[in-house]
Model the fold of this input.
Amino acid sequence: MKAQAMNSGDEATPDLAVARRVLDLESKALKAVSESLNGDFVTALDLLSAVAGRVVVTGMGKSGHVARKIAATLASTGAPAQFVHPAEASHGDLGMITSEDAVIALSNSGNTAELNDVIAHSRRFAIPLIAITGGPASTLAEGADVTLSLPKAPEACPMGLAPTSSTTMMMALGDALAVALLERRGFSSRDFQALHPGGSLGRTLLRVVEIMHGPEELPLCGLETSMADAILVMTEKTWGCAGITDAGGNLVGIVTDGDLRRHMQGDLLDRSAGEVMTASPKTIRPEALAAEALGVMNANSITSLFVVEEGQPIGIVRLHDCLRSGIG
Done:
């Protein structure tokens, strides 16, 4: 049977009280770590910005799980990164950490024995080492080039043992480093989309230029083109429309199937495209998001848009192209 939803009379249950206590403690820990930030954070960012290789993130136990997430966040925001397990590092994986890299090591106590070989390796080869730890006088902090200290904060576990507040602070610091580095490097939504081609994020950031049909497929006619020839172009290109350009190649109008019906008279075929066209058609920029193109088409009850750059038509995008790409 499905669990029954609690009603308003259940708001003060012991379980909810525990949950709220945990969230309150962790939110206070986050506030404390935010207030504790100083020039060491900027120094850490300077080290990461100068990395020619990868950012290696390491940690043991729960700190290791957080380290994996930080490495993934860095990699997805334009800073090549990888996780190295400290115990495996002592058995050959130190070879993954080169003199071109920087290391971020996580340990709440700062005295995690498995990190010792990573610390020694970084010192031996002058590899920048950033510590995230709650032990400012620990082995890790003493060996690091810069230490981001976690303020004292109670763990949410009633015994004060299970890593909760401490790992939340580590995770948040990792996010802060990744986002600050992203902004310092000028990482754009276009860069982000390139690293997230799959899933909803990739679809959301898809650009018109990536789904449009190119110049060779454009149905174009001049202002003086007869409608007989314009209809041949419309039929050949199968878009249900023709773009009308002036002598300079600028898009100035469009002839659609609807225009043909509205001008269905005996002399239609003898008229020029310029006489029948709808002037100033809706267009879209090549760098616009595909979602924007879909919005323009829906708002104007049309099924295609010419893609224009500096007045010149360079492509065409259809409603179907957006839907096929997962937009909408």
Residues 279 and 319 are 21 Å apart (CA to CA). Residues 15-187 form a domain with the Rossmann fold fold (CATH 3.40.50.10490). The chain has a mean pLDDT of 90.
